[in-house]
From TrEMBL:
InterPro entries: NAD(P)-bd_dom_sf, SDR_fam
Coiled-coil zones: none
Keyword Nucleus: no
Originating organism: Corallococcus exercitus
MF annotations from Gene Ontology: oxidoreductase activity
Upper lineage: Bacteria, Pseudomonadati, Myxococcota, Myxococcia, Myxococcales
Keyword Disulfide bond: no
Domain of life: Bacteria
Protein name: SDR family NAD(P)-dependent oxidoreductase
Family: Belongs to the short-chain dehydrogenases/reductases (SDR) family.
UniProt keyword annotations, A-Z: Oxidoreductase
Length: 271
């Protein structure tokens, strides 16, 4: 039996993917999200569909919370596991967490890196799939401002943090050639990500009606997960939905990549 870790499992794409994976035999799902009650309900749904699942509540919004989650997962999973990074935050306002860092920078970038570190060090992972976003092409990284959200805007910060994690995962792939890594744009999906109140929220909800359902996206992700291999050893590939594409130009900027490496190392060394 193989293990598959799925973050952001309680809602949207993650919830739909868990249900789509449930009928697959010889696989155990480790479902991760902050809401323990929703996770337990999802475990029950997966089991009704014939699958096996375990709820692992955890929070990627702080470095310490992410570290504890990774250590817990490393204790639970067996070697050869797949990790699906699906959790994400599209912020509506600048909020600093207990570390003094902007919350989506941690949730979308630092937290997932810290969480998976224990799994990599323990030799638990064979594959990592990152549910990213095509909007990373609009991302920019400012070492002095992005970690604390001093360059905050609702759209730009989402793009920036998605770019950060995609760049970091290219480095992870290079450092761990034994792990198959892919980063992808999942499609334009109708979820509550970026939900807003008031008139803006209502207008956005009307636009989203034309977007694809999470179940459609989940079926696409299942097909990708069933591929024998995603990337050559030591590299990571970029997919737009199911099609491989060249990495966007913004991800090839050497100065940006080095600045992010240096900043990430400094921030994690201090915590």
């Amino acid at each position: 039996m193989t293990d598959l870790i799925l973050t952001g499992a309680s809602r949207g794409i993650g919830h739909a993917l868990a249900l789509a994976l449930a009928p697959i035999r010889n696989q155990r799902l480790l479902l991760v999200a902050r809401d323990a009650d929703r996770l337990q309900a999802l475990v029950a749904d997966v089991e009704r569909l014939g699958g096996q699942a375990l709820a692992v509540p955890g929070d990627l919004g702080t470095v310490e919370g992410a570290r504890k989650l990774g250590e817990r997962l490393a204790e639970l999973v067996t070697p050869g596991a797949t990790l699906v990074h699906n959790a994400g935050l599209w912020p509506s306002e600048r909020v600093l967490n207990a570390d003094g860092l902007e919350t989506s920078f941690v949730t979308n970038h630092l937290g997932p890196l810290v969480m998976q570190r224990s799994l990599l060090e323990a030799g638990r992972l064979r594959r990592i799939l990152v549910v990213s976003g095509g909007l990373l092409v609009m991302g920019r990284f400012d070492a002095a401002r992005t970690p604390t959200g001093e360059d905050f805007s609702s759209l730009r910060t989402y793009c920036n943090t998605k770019l950060c994690f995609a760049l970091a995962m290219r480095d992870v792939a290079a450092a761990h050639p034994e792990v198959d890594v892919v980063v992808l744009h999942p499609g334009v999906v109708r979820t509550d990500l970026a939900a807003r109140s008031g008139l803006v929220g209502w207008l956005l909800s009307q636009v989203k009606r034309a977007w694809e359902r999470p179940e459609v996206c989940a079926a696409r992700l299942v097909r990708i997960l069933q591929r024998e291999r995603w990337s050559p050893p030591g590299d990571a590939r970029w997919l737009m939905e199911e099609a491989e594409r060249p990495w966007p130009a913004v991800t090839e900027n050497a100065a940006t990549r080095q600045a992010l490496r240096d900043t990430t190392s400094r921030l994690l060394a201090a915590r």
